[in-house]
Amino acid sequence: MAKQKKHPSGTIALNKKALHDYFIEQKFEAGVALAGWEVKSLRAGKAQLVDSYVLLKDGEAWLLGSHIAPLKTASTHVIADPTRTRKLLLHKRELGKLFGAVQQKGYACIALSLYWKKHLIKCEIALAKGKKEYDKRDTERERDSHREIQRAIRNKGKED
């Protein structure tokens, strides 16, 4: 009987800046077309999505601005480009929704996270609307007040 391989699990990279800068309207799960050295680097957790975004062109979706640092041992025979454009794999109807929404005013398509789903690497992308400066401050204020309330509830029983 063949030995069962343990699949890696969890999040590889998060784009926290996107959650700060945008209102998330709708999320999609997309596959990512990767080279072998990129998969090995992602297993080691060497990815960043800070300034990444999704470009919709010619009926296809492309991930731009993501950085996958090459491993010294994995990419000896290949010239590795850490910021290369990677193709996102989506269904036609999902691409249609994205194209229609991005052509509307104020919508952007951004990458939120890279994660493992069984043995595959998936990218969570989202349709988002940009936040104004006062919206960002408002969100921060709400988060701080919620944190204070939780802290007060947690410490209520310990004051005795």
TrEMBL record:
Belongs to the SmpB family. This is SsrA-binding protein. Its main location: cytoplasm. GO terms for cellular component: cytosol. Pfam families: SmpB. Residues 130-160 are annotated as: Disordered. It is found in: Cytoplasm. Required for rescue of stalled ribosomes mediated by trans-translation. Binds to transfer-messenger RNA (tmRNA), required for stable association of tmRNA with ribosomes. tmRNA and SmpB together mimic tRNA shape, replacing the anticodon stem-loop with SmpB. tmRNA is encoded by the ssrA gene; the 2 termini fold to resemble tRNA(Ala) and it encodes a 'tag peptide', a short internal open reading frame. During trans-translation Ala-aminoacylated tmRNA acts like a tRNA, entering the A-site of stalled ribosomes, displacing the stalled mRNA. PROSITE patterns: SSRP (PS01317). Keywords: Cytoplasm, RNA-binding. The keyword RNA-binding applies. HAMAP family: SmpB. GO terms for molecular function: RNA binding. It comes from the Bacteria. InterPro entries: SmpB, SsrA-bd_prot, SsrA-bd_prot_CS. GO terms for biological process: trans-translation; trans-translation-dependent protein tagging.
